[in-house]
Design brief:
Elements: E1 17-21, H1 39-53, E2 57-61, H2 76-86, E3 91-92, H3 99-107, E4 113-115, H4 131-134, H5 138-143, E5 149-152, H6 163-167, E6 174-176, H7 178-192, E7 198-202, H8 207-219, E8 225-228, H9 230-239, H10 246-254, H11 259-270, E9 275-276, E10 280-285, E11 288-293, E12 302-305, H12 307-319, E13 322-326, H13 339-350, E14 354-357, H14 361-368, E15 377-378, H15 382-389, H16 395-403
Parallel strand pairs: 1-2, 1-5, 2-4, 3-4, 5-6, 7-8, 7-13, 8-9, 13-14, 14-15
Antiparallel strand pairs: 10-11, 10-12
Length: 406
């Protein structure tokens, strides 16, 4: 598949200073502050190692969480982890674009690697603005004179328009890193060469994302069937007139999703045969799992899809030739309510069709269950892959395409 932007194969990087934006945002233990999972660092290690091996002076830019969150911290520990993974030193500087950062960049030798401080410590990084405006920020203007190329490998953040993601591509020759290239190649190819039947399994608690995807794939005819789970299923059950219980309606209200019940009702009316909702659910009664039919849901929290629904969904999944799945089916962290998520993943892994799983919790569950090698593609970016499936433009990809001719 051809791209309208450069990849790393198009750049001669030896002796050049290359700024590479990655997404190594990692779960952090709130007590000890230690990194709990280095999956994303291992993914981006391919791009970083290749640049180093080819004699580039590699400057890494990344973020960790966002202001106000408990895991919003420095990247010093990330530099140690990256050093271990790469088997070579990754120097860390406690600065983003100030004199210390710029001096460290100038001192780099061929093959050396430098990690800048958490870019979200810089206030302008979290503002959503047009790429042209982001290219005028202090961050971009200060670092641009020091770099020869910009490589964006942060697919997981490609749906955001922030200075570190879109600004540099409009200033210097740019390219996609190996993670970005692989994600786009796989997802675009799957979208362009859909084998039928194509089944979407949409769950989790990010209802707005799932409904946006659902609307797009049903309207453009790329989906033959959509199976709803998680909070998405609860919204659709409510939209179908099912009384899901006061406690569950309150949960929907608290998350600001009440308006989506009307959207779900309209979608179900337009595509009655293509959207499946659960026929039973698992509620929590005194902390224990109790499966009940949807016609008799008591006022207890719905925590998973029910066993009859699991059987029905598994049959549909195994019949599919193309599968897209995003979001867990229930509160999978609790063993009592992990059955739906586990059985759906088991059905996907045993399907003969090509399967893609969005990032986030479902990807973590797949990894925990050891299904990584049995699934066609596990995306590193839930938000970005969801945006792509919903037919939205990814700002970070668009600026790479605009940068290509320069």
């Amino acid at each position: 598949m051809s791209f309208r932007f450069r990849t790393m194969d198009d750049l001669e990087v030896e002796g050049k200073t290359v700024l590479v934006r990655v997404d190594i945002n990692s779960p952090v233990d709130p007590q000890s502050g230690s990194i709990l999972d280095d999956t994303r660092m291992r993914l981006h290690a391919e791009t970083i190692r290749e640049l180093s091996d080819r004699g580039a002076r590699t400057v890494i830019m990344a973020h960790q969480s966002r202001p106000g969150k408990k895991d919003f911290t420095t990247l010093e520990q990330h530099s140690h982890k990256l050093s271990e993974i790469l088997g070579r030193p990754v120097r860390y500087v406690e600065d983003i674009f100030g004199s210390a950062a710029r001096e460290n960049i100038r001192e780099l030798r061929n093959g050396e690697i430098l990690l800048l401080e958490n870019v979200r410590f810089y206030s302008e990084e979290v503002l959503k603005r047009d790429p042209v405006e982001q290219a005028e920020t202090h961050l971009v203007r200060k670092l641009t004179p020091l770099i020869d190329y910009f490589i964006n490998d942060a697919f997981a953040a490609a749906h955001r328009s922030q200075p570190s993601l879109v600004g540099f591509a409009l200033r210097v020759p740019s390219a996609a890193g190996r993670v970005m290239e692989r994600e786009l190649r796989t997802l675009r190819s799957a979208l362009e060469n859909v084998e039928r039947p194509c089944v979407y399994v949409l769950g989790g608690v990010k209802v707005d994302d799932s409904i946006m995807v659902m609307k797009n794939v049903l309207e453009n005819g790329s989906a033959d069937l959509v199976l709803t789970t998680g909070l998405v299923a609860n919204i659709f059950l409510a939209g179908c007139g099912v009384k899901i219980g006061k406690v569950n309606m309150e949960f929907i209200r608290n998350r600001g999703y009440c308006d989506f019940i009307k959207v779900a009702k309209k979608l179900k009316k337009r595509f009655p045969e293509k959207i499946l909702v659960p026929i039973d659910v698992a509620i929590s009664r005194d902390g224990k799992r109790v499966d009940v039919p949807v016609k008799r849901i008591p006022n207890h929290p719905i925590q998973d899809i029910g066993m009859e629904t699991i059987k029905l969904y598994a049959e549909r999944i195994r019949e599919a030739r193309t599968l897209f799945a995003n979001g867990p089916a229930g509160v999978f962290e609790n063993p009592e309510f992990s059955i739906g998520t586990e059985d759906i993943l088991n059905a996907i892994s045993s399907s003969e069709g090509f399967s893609i799983i969005g990032g986030g919790h479902l990807a973590a569950a797949a990894a925990k269950m050891g299904f990584e090698d049995k699934i066609g593609h596990i995306s590193s970016g839930g938000g970005a892959s969801i945006s792509l499936l919903a037919g939205e433009e990814l700002p970070a990809v668009r600026v790479l395409e605009e940068s290509a001719p320069h």
